[in-house]
Each structure stands twice: as C-alpha cells, then as structure tokens.
Design goal:
With 181 residues, this protein is mainly beta. The protein is built from 3 helices and 10 strands. Strands 1-6 form a two-stranded antiparallel sheet. A two-stranded antiparallel ribbon has the order 2-3. The chain has a two-stranded antiparallel ribbon with strand order 4-5. A hairpin with a 5-residue loop joins strand 4 and strand 5. The longest helix has 7 residues. The protein is globular, with a radius of gyration of 15 Å.
C-alpha cells in the first residue's frame, strides 16, 4: 500500500529493490562503478545515467551507516523535494528519478509484500510492488553475501533483441573516499 512518508516512518523503511519503470527506460544498461553505482534516468537529459548515492553529498555532508543493527544507507524525498537520509537493517536500492521526480513524499508500508516504490506509466501513478526478482520465471532470488547484499533487477536484450530479465547481487552502497567523489 502506498502512503505518505513521515520522518519517523522513513527510518524503518528499506529493502533491496529495483524499479521496473527504470529497468524499462534503461534497458541494456548497468552501472558497475563504486562511485556511481545507481542506474537512474535523468529527465532533463532524457537519458540513463549512473549516479552517486544522493546521501554521499547532502549539501556537503557525507552520510554513512556504521552500526551493525542498521548498516545500510537509505534515502527518500519529501513532497517538497527535500532529501532525507537514514540507516536501515535491510539494503535499499532506489533511484532519484522515482523517489524525487515522480513519487516525492511517497513510500511503501508493506516491506515483506510490496516493498518497491515504482511508477506505473500506464496509470500515471506511483505504486508499491513486489520485488521483480522474488518471482523471476518461477525462481525467488536473494542475496546472502554481506558484501553484495543488494538484489537488483534490470533488463538486458538477448542476441535476438528480446527482453532478458536480470537479477543480480550488487555491492553495499558505501561512500568512496573524499578524493574519489
């Protein structure tokens, strides 16, 4: 169920995830740079980009999550477009285009069922959906390696040009050293 985010509820959200909207827009692309690991869409440039985690430069502040209880950096945006950074127990993979441009102030309140905030292009609205890798051709994917805890969905094209669903485990989002940003 979709709901408005509040500062208190924001900090308990988080799960690995991937937008099917972004996967479609950015079909055939991926980001494997540790400095810019998030595959996103830039509507002003009308193209897909690899971006740094927005909490790695929050008006000059670099956020991190050094605790064992909540080791994963997460973010959302208020309705007014203000970045909110926090830490969560579960890993989180979100895009700025979904979280800020399309669904600012929205979040998903059923992390075990529909944890992924996404955009329904047909209905022109924000939705919460199950992780696309939880049922990919009958297989439920998961990521058990602590260094690669984020389950990411993306789409490629096979040699015939048909859509190929890709579920992969990617590295924990950790800010690079200052000189690498």
């Amino acid at each position: 169920m979709l709901r408005a985010l509040t500062a208190a509820s924001f900090l308990v959200l988080g799960t690995s995830g991937s937008s099917m909207h972004i996967a479609k827009l950015c079909r055939g692309e991926t980001c494997d740079s540790k400095n810019h690991p998030i595959l996103d869409y830039d509507p002003s440039q009308k193209k897909c980009i690899c971006r740094a985690h927005p909490c790695w430069n929050d008006d000059g502040q670099v956020h991190s999550c050094p605790t064992q209880e909540s080791p994963h950096l997460i973010f959302s945006y208020t309705k007014a477009g203000k970045l909110q950074c926090g830490c969560a127990k579960e890993p989180h993979y979100e895009t700025v285009h979904i979280a800020k441009d399309l669904c600012a102030g929205e979040g998903c309140d059923k992390p075990d069922v529909h944890p992924i905030l996404d955009y329904d292009e047909e209905g022109k609205k924000c939705i919460c959906r199950a992780h696309p890798c939880w049922d990919s051709e009958g297989k439920k994917h998961s990521c058990d390696n602590a260094e690669f805890p984020i389950l990411r969905y993306r789409e490629d094209k096979d040699e015939k040009g048909d859509v190929k669903k890709v579920c992969e485990c990617v590295a924990k989002l950790v800010a690079p050293a200052d000189d690498e940003l």
